[in-house]
Amino acid sequence: QKEVEQDPGPLSVPEGAIVSLNCTYSNSAFQYFMWYRQYSRKGPELLMYTYSSGNKEDGRFTAQVDKSSKYISLFIRDSQPSDSATYLCAMNHPGKSTFGDGTTLTVKP
Amino acid sequence: DTGVSQDPRHKITKRGQNVTFRCDPISEHNRLYWYRQTLGQGPEFLTYFQNEAQLEKSRLLSDRFSAERPKGSFSTLEIQRTEQGDSAMYLCASSPRGQSYNEQFFGPGTRLTVL
Prior knowledge:
The structure holds two protein chains of two kinds.
Chain A: E1 4-6, E2 11-14, E3 19-25, E4 32-38, E5 45-50, E6 54-58, E7 61-66, E8 71-76, E9 85-92, E10 97-99, E11 103-108
Parallel strand pairs in A: 2-11
Antiparallel strand pairs in A: 1-3, 3-8, 4-5, 4-9, 6-7, 7-8, 9-10, 9-11
Chain B: E1 5-7, E2 10-13, E3 19-24, E4 31-37, E5 44-50, E6 53-57, E7 65-68, E8 75-79, E9 88-95, E10 105-106, E11 110-114
């Protein structure tokens, strides 16, 4: 079993929808939680980074961490076609990152 | 461009050949990481450096793989006697000192195809 499991998708939503992307993890030692966006054939781009349980907001993006349930989420409000990409969750312990396998999102105009 | 750069972007080689990739991190980032990513999977950790010291190597990294960061700046990843299973995207990332050291910034990757 993988240390980080991510909802596999793919996910297709209409423009303007609220998107929820989710990961679970098994290693209690993970301390830092990240969300990356990756376009096809490009390197991942860091979107959000959080340490503690709770919510962190940045524009249309909200990252949520529940350490007691070992569950993290990324919410995208008012989704745009430019948000179409693969979203990767990642966790650090500390230093190296352990990634989920990604959820591919398509936002249709 | 002050981001992480990788060279080459693409490499096609025959099975059994040796290949070497280079990564130039963001200036003054003291940590440098190598990951491997195959289609449909997330990046898998290979190794990382703090300055010139290699602090951790994954069990995935067989004896055919070696990485160096001789002066604490750029890094090279060498694969000897390549196998078809080595075909993947090799990603390099760097992170800054201090509290933000978990914020890893990735390069564009080197796509390796072993024929």
